[in-house]
Amino acid sequence: MPKFLLRASSFLLAILLAAPLAIAQTAKPAAPPAAAPAADNPSVIIHTSEGDITLQLFADKSPKSVANFLRYVHEGFYAGTIFHRAIPGYLIQGGLYTKELQPRRTHSPVQSEADNGLSNLRGTIAVARGADPNSGTAQFFVNLVDDRRLDYVGSQSGLTWGYTVFGKVIKGMDVVDKIAGLPTRALGPFAADVPNPLVVIEGVDVVGEASPAPASSPATPAGGAKHKSP
């Protein structure tokens, strides 16, 4: 083969081989698939007479429980209620009784979501309830220790059903521990465990939202509210 034909063939082959590479180098990369939007897990601040406690709520795991809690928050329900139960090494509980130890009227109970896979670890907040797993309303408790005895293990009974975790403390755990360390006494309908002095919830704000007005009827009786949970 003449040299000029060999050179021409080689040149043509080089162009053909280079063309796909050039196209690959200049083509825009495909856009990555759009990520699923993150679930809206709002934060709230519980303002107490002992300091502030900031919570992150797990709306992605406990949507009904979070919606129930936020309903009371937006209504100003918690302003003026107390933490009526504090047991070191266990929990602090509140959100229903006023300083006069009168329960407020609540909405219908929320369905339990204790089978959501979340565990009752230190700093988590959970729905307080009676013997019926689906009897929780406004009351909540904060775990002081990892307490997996309170987790869901089955639907056989109220004991095995466990307690719904719907958030965790992200700031102010020192305030929680301070409340738990206060002296306690018998007071009103409670035979023991009421912090002395009373720890008042002055209000609860959703981060990024305006503060709600206090509830208009602060001491309306709530039927069947006098239960211990857990």
Automatic annotation (TrEMBL):
It comes from Dyella psychrodurans. PPIases accelerate the folding of proteins. It catalyzes the cis-trans isomerization of proline imidic peptide bonds in oligopeptides. Residues 1-24 form the signal peptide. It comes from the Bacteria. InterPro entries: Cyclophilin-like_dom_sf, Cyclophilin-type_PPIase_dom, E_coli_cyclophilin_A-like. Residues 47-206 form the PPIase cyclophilin-type domain. It catalyses: [protein]-peptidylproline (omega=180) = [protein]-peptidylproline (omega=0). This is Peptidyl-prolyl cis-trans isomerase. The lineage of its organism: Bacteria, Pseudomonadati, Pseudomonadota, Gammaproteobacteria, Lysobacterales. Belongs to the cyclophilin-type PPIase family. Residues 211-230 are annotated as: Disordered. Pfam families: Pro_isomerase. It is an enzyme of class 5 (isomerase). Residues 211-224 have a biased composition (Low complexity). Gene3D superfamilies: Cyclophilin-like. Its EC number is 5.2.1.8. Keywords: Isomerase, Rotamase, Signal. GO terms for molecular function: peptidyl-prolyl cis-trans isomerase activity.
